[in-house]
Write a structure and sequence with these properties.
357 residues; alpha/beta; 6% strand; globular
């Protein structure tokens, strides 16, 4: 793992909860880790996989009452995500191994029991809960361990994600408010990576209304086209993380940190973004208006040309136009320099993309 990566550990489940979530994650982070989850590395027959998914759903429908557990639901979802996951294999990182029912970090089982109690409450007297720790499912095609999906269970996966996050010091991302996060003694104070992550996510909320679900192939194109702006944006977030760090203490709650991150974005990022947009849009007149305005100088030019021959007069006019064009060109270069150097150009360009479907 590269310490310079802008990465996160996905907390709620074994794959993104929606393509919109996936889009947001891919537009912010270098890598998104899914601890203990395995999907095939080799291409699979997607039609055959979908047929198997449909078969399982039909079998479940025939049962009365319908027995569709969380694990079954997430197993089917993970099977459906094989295609996008393989396309985005450099972004979505599945750390599991084939031949297991999920790969668990040390301490995951104990933390799973904590989550069990947080979700369901204390167990009755003389009853010891035994939650599932994982699942595995073979896929159509060759009968090998590699040709399968496996992952920690719906309850052990979040516990595994918490421990993985702590072990490798990668920020934990939760986009499911309904799923509780176990309290782990840890403070993001003076952790620039975590604080800049909060700032980046809060900043990106400004462009969320225009961001919809994007196909994996298009996501790769956008990341490639905007890689320089994205790098500048992350540096900007790291710079601002110093201010966020000053606003919190080692005992600050996550809610307090998020509140301060939102305040910093509202009072610093948004005004600076608006100033940048104004500087780009309003710096000088549009080129066509600048050239048309030369007509206002016509009497003076004509007056100066009274002693000149017409060809000489035209030379002076074109020379003046040439000077104006050079000034306009120089302004455009300066606009691009300001835009790139600011660090917020990434947000502006995302706003300009048509990502609605």
């Amino acid at each position: 793992m590269n310490n310079n990566e802008f990465s996160c550990v996905y907390y709620p489940q074994q794959y993104p909860r929606s393509f919109r979530s996936l889009t947001i994650l891919a537009l912010v982070f270098d890598k998104v880790y899914f601890p203990g989850v395995w999907i095939p590395n080799k291409p699979v027959d997607r039609e055959a996989v979908q047929t198997e998914i449909d078969r399982i759903i039909n079998v479940l429908k025939e049962k009365k009452p319908l027995r569709h557990t969380y694990d079954t639901q997430q197993m089917l979802g993970l099977m459906s995500f094989i295609g996008p996951g393989q396309t985005l294999r450099d972004i979505c990182i599945f750390t599991g191994r084939s031949g297991y029912a999920g790969t668990l970090e040390e301490g995951t089982e104990e933390l799973t029991m904590v989550l069990e109690k947080m979700v369901y409450g204390p167990p009755p007297p003389s009853f010891t809960p035994t939650p599932s720790m994982g699942f595995a499912k073979g896929l159509p095609g060759e009968n090998t361990a590699d040709n399968s999906v496996n992952a920690p269970s719906w309850l052990s996966y979040p516990a595994n994600a918490v421990i993985f996050s702590q072990k490798y010091s990668i920020p934990l991302l939760n986009d499911c408010p309904e799923l509780p996060v176990p309290c782990v003694p840890y403070s993001p104070k003076s952790n620039a990576k975590i604080l800049s992550t909060y700032l980046a996510l809060e900043s990106l909320k400004m462009v969320l209304p225009k961001i919809g679900p994007v196909d994996p192939e298009q996501l790769l194109e956008i990341r490639s086209d905007l890689q320089d702006e994205l790098a500048s944006f992350r540096l900007k977030m790291l710079e601002l993380s110093k201010e966020l760090n000053q606003a919190i203490s080692s005992s600050s709650s996550w809610q307090h940190i998020q509140k301060n991150a939102k305040f910093l974005v509202e009072t610093t990022v948004i005004p600076e973004l608006e100033n940048l947009r104004r500087a780009i849009n309003d710096a000088g007149k549009p080129w066509h208006k600048r050239l048309v305005d030369l007509a206002l100088d016509a009497p003076e030019l004509i007056g100066n040309f009274t002693t000149m021959l017409p060809p000489q007069a035209l030379i002076q006019v074109f020379k003046r136009i040439g000077q104006e064009i050079k000034e306009i060109y120089d302004e455009q270069i300066e606009k691009k320099r300001v835009l790139f150097g600011n660090g917020l150009s990434y947000l502006m360009k995302l706003q300009q993309l048509d990502l609605k479907h």
